[in-house]
Write a structure and sequence with these properties.
Layout: E1 11-15, E2 18-24, E3 27-28, E4 31-32, H1 40-51, E5 58-61, H2 66-76, H3 81-95, E6 103-104, H4 105-111, H5 120-130, H6 137-150
């Protein structure tokens, strides 16, 4: 899963109890890892491969960054009600000492901006904020990741 680092790996397990993804710093709930050694294109490709897994796949990422990632997701796609719903849910979980993880791939596709680079509302929001003319999904991903890195 190159992108975060060139040798980054993820483990996917199908079991009678469900599907599980142990993805390190590739996908976070409502986010993705920084691009350190790889390229934006590599990270986008890695995320797209993981997005093809079954929607019920439980995602176990390396860090609990959900709340801060949701704050960025609201900036990137302010009209997405799924983001504010998830934010309320996560605040309640954390207040009660319960982690927000694991997430599911189905949920991430609804509010994770880095998995929404082909969604009309995400493209519109980003082109309006940053005057983009290139709406290729890799360019949208690159702009999103660079924007988050600058905050």
């Amino acid at each position: 899963m190159p992108g975060h680092t060139l040798d980054h790996i993820a483990f996917y397990v199908e079991h009678e109890s469900g599907s599980y993804l142990f993805c390190g710093d590739t996908i976070f709930s409502a986010g993705c890892g920084r691009v350190f050694e790889g390229t934006f294109s590599q990270m986008h490709d890695s995320l797209q491969k993981l997005a093809q897994l079954p929607d019920n796949t439980k995602i176990y990422c390396a860090h609990e960054y959900t709340l801060s990632n949701l704050a960025f997701a609201k900036l990137a796609e302010p009209d997405n009600k799924k983001i504010t719903d998830r934010e309320k849910e996560v605040k309640n979980l954390l207040k009660n000492g319960i982690p927000s993880l694991p997430s599911t791939l189905k949920n991430e596709k609804e509010f994770n901006p880095f998995l929404r680079c082909t969604e009309k509302d995400m493209i519109s929001s980003l082109t309006n904020k940053h005057n983009l003319t290139n709406t290729d999904p890799v360019n949208i991903f690159s702009e999103l990741r660079q924007w988050k890195d600058s905050l």
